[in-house]
């Protein structure tokens, strides 16, 4: 089994969608082994998304991620990274497959409701950015 870092973004927490999104993860066979609601500062969002620092939307992205509470969580399961990205759908909701979180809930390419790690190395880094080992309960 594998673990991945998931974030339910401010556009989704604002609309009270945490439960509906978690239901999709659980229905796909992913287990929520850690979860907390936090409000990132813009600087913390910037550190988390540092790989995107050169992208034109970086400032907007950091502003958005600090605009309200997020739910950070660790999802565990068989091929959890790929499975989570499947449940999330494409970055742009206009391209997201029917039934995915982004197709159903995302408001735009920026305010797209969820984040998911994209590889084992980034998953490990992102999990340790938010959680200590003691907080992961499989
Ligand atoms: P994450 O799981 O959040 O990393 O999404 P992703 O892997 O599907 O997309 P990517 O890593 O390429 O981009 C990271 C995040 O930046 C996206 O989820 C969006 O929130 C935001 N983003 C990407 N492209 C754009 C864009 O063109 N405009 C804006 N405003 N935000 C964007
Ligand atoms: Mg990404």
Automatic annotation (TrEMBL):
- Which one Pfam family would you cite for this protein? NDK
Question: Which SMART domains has this protein been placed in?
Answer: NDK
Q: Where do transmembrane segments lie in this chain?
A: none
* PROSITE patterns recorded: NDPK (PS00469), NDPK_LIKE (PS51374)
Give a GO cellular-component term. Answer: cytoplasm
- Record gene name: ndk
Identify the HAMAP family for this entry.
NDP_kinase (MF_00451)
Q: Where in the cell is it found?
A: Cytoplasm
MF GO annotations = ATP binding; metal ion binding; nucleoside diphosphate kinase activity
UniProt name for this protein = Nucleoside diphosphate kinase
Amino-acid positions noted as binding ATP in the UniProt annotation, renumbered to this chain:
9, 57, 85, 91, 102, 112
* Catalytic reactions on record: a 2'-deoxyribonucleoside 5'-diphosphate + ATP = a 2'-deoxyribonucleoside 5'-triphosphate + ADP; a ribonucleoside 5'-diphosphate + ATP = a ribonucleoside 5'-triphosphate + ADP
What does the function comment of this entry state?
A: Major role in the synthesis of nucleoside triphosphates other than ATP. The ATP gamma phosphate is transferred to the NDP beta phosphate via a ping-pong mechanism, using a phosphorylated active-site intermediate.
